[in-house]
Amino acid sequence: MSDLKNRLLPMLGHVSGKRSAVTCALKCGNACAQGVCNTSSNNYFRDVVSAEFSRRNMLGVSGAGVLALMFGGGAAANAGSATGLAPAAKVGQAGNGSKLKFTGIDGVANTVDDVVVPKGYNWKPVIRWGDPLFNDSAEFDPENQTPESQAGQFGYNNDYLDIIEIPGTNGKRAVLFANHEYTNENLMFPPTMDPSVVRRTAMAAHGLSVVELRRKGKGQPWEYVRGAKLNRRFLMDTEYELTGPAAGSKLLQTQADPTGRKVLGTQNNCAGGTTPWGTILSGEENFNQYFKVSNPSDEQRRYGLTNTNPSRGWHVEETRFDADLPEGKNEDNRFGWIVEVDPFDPTSTPRKHTALGRFKHEGANVTIAKSGHVVSYSGDDERFDYLYKFVSKGKYVEGDKKHNMTLLTEGDLFVASFTGNSPRNQIDGSGVLPSDGSFDGTGHWIQLTKDGKSLVPGMEIDQVLVYTRLAADKMGATKMDRPEDVEVNPHTGKVYMACTNNTKRTAAEVDEANPRANNKHGHIVEITETGDQASTEFTWNLLLVAGDPAVDESVYFAGYPADKVQPLSCPDNVAFDSAGNLWISTDGQPGTIQRNDALYRVTLEGPERGKVEQFMAVPIDGETCGPVIHDEDGMVYVAVQHPGEDGSWDKQRSLFPDYLPAGTPSGKGGLPRPSVIQMYKGKNGH
Ligand code: FEO
Ligand code: CA
Ligand code: CA
């Protein structure tokens, strides 16, 4: 089938300026090649929300008793319980307190097809695309994959990752969650494979996986357990329950589901978060690229539904993905949500939470305010889109999982407005610091919903939640440079947002929170909520302005000497270790600083604040997703996504992770397999 490549990559040739054209086409549906979705007239620089709205927001939240709360109450992201704040390194205290000792590696050239780890560390896959999960699953057979075999195997392109130890097993058992963002049919299947089999097998390689792990003890590598009782695949025919104020809305009703409450499947899951009650949140991101639509509405355009002929062709297999047909009406509105999954209950129904709004969710991370309300932060990953926050109506109850699993179904949704404190003429688009020495300022959370009602003029509650981008446009949110992962530091309560890049921002469009024109390297925003995690006011500053300090004077790593930091570009996922250091993984370095994507530790507190150390690099064309840092037992995990992306079935560029001899045919295993890997102390190598 010689037209396979063209069919899958109709826009190949476009390059966004940072990563492979293939990744642009397959991962995001060429989002960067499309026009900017956000054509709203929000002011780029000033906070334009009226004093009236501002006052109402304040009253709204204080009415819920939240403003009276004091700062604090972070929950360790992976600890499974709400904990107090542990001490971080203090100002004046040397070092970063991390239990993970390593000597940082150098940047790795973007031609290297290898996992590079520090001296004294080893790495090994935990699970690979195609590994069978169940006793009756077919073995991975790249030459002859089918929808049925893939449905019983680990999916493709793992992104969000967590590994949660099972209590009472002394660190010997765990449950792994990974989502599967998208597929690269050019690498995965022989060109001779039947097109319908390709489409349906690729569909089964999307979704989510839960897999049990076992090992000999702490600090030892894991292996996955085939046939374990918690193992589960979530496929495109898995039923999800819509919750919250928009569930049942006519905007969510379809021919197949007149209730508007039951959705089959999840699409393009990217980052995520693990809740303090032990469930997983996963973000539906570039869902627009799976729908055929010829005459998009204004609302559909705002969500990027402009691709009239989706390259994966799912609409050929299932007419609900054809928005031009009656069967497809409203189906696109049923994707773009935060999904919650209970990995410890294999019979549970996964849910999509409408109260958190619908957009291109990178992920969502929950913390607990001192009051007990839970707060979820979520970025909308598109150029010039927004940062959101959800505050639950109910309160967290330690140990009551059933109750806590209701917390994301009711609450108030906010969107962020950032205001700089330096004169406009000092924010010139070059990225050079203003005279006060910092890109910083104040901000507030604009309230979109309150007690299940809309606060957006002219929009009902279901419209605000289904068309959240349009609601936020109306309320004057600040246009950011692609908000990716947003996480709370469990030690300090500060919030860290990765803005990965935005090469479309012009000098006329810069503001102090997005100060560089043609921002190809991205930046990290550090947010301090005023008083409490549920507050409506905050202060902010840019922690990192990324890039290569050797060639770019705008690079800023919290004031750490530029000649002592390593280049870092396109921050994407963030995580914290047990000492409160920030870990950053990247997506796009091969195209910007000619290095493979990588994982870095950044010291946040003390005299070495801003020190960046590279822990590892992923193989050629790959992305460093889902970092999990268990420094307490010396383990680091990443989900290696799209290794060898620019290859083809007949000419692979990566043999990760098995590295069979060069020349091994793809059908015999000579192909890249996106995999979760673990890194730990041991003899160097694999
Ligand atoms: Fe799937 Fe925003 O990266
Ligand atoms: Ca400033
Ligand atoms: Ca991402």
Automatic annotation (TrEMBL):
It comes from the Bacteria. InterPro entries: PhoX, TAT_signal. It comes from Arthrobacter crystallopoietes BAB-32. This is Phosphatase. SUPFAM superfamilies: NHL repeat (SSF101898). Pfam families: PhoX (PF05787). The lineage of its organism: Bacteria, Bacillati, Actinomycetota, Actinomycetes, Micrococcales. PROSITE patterns: TAT.
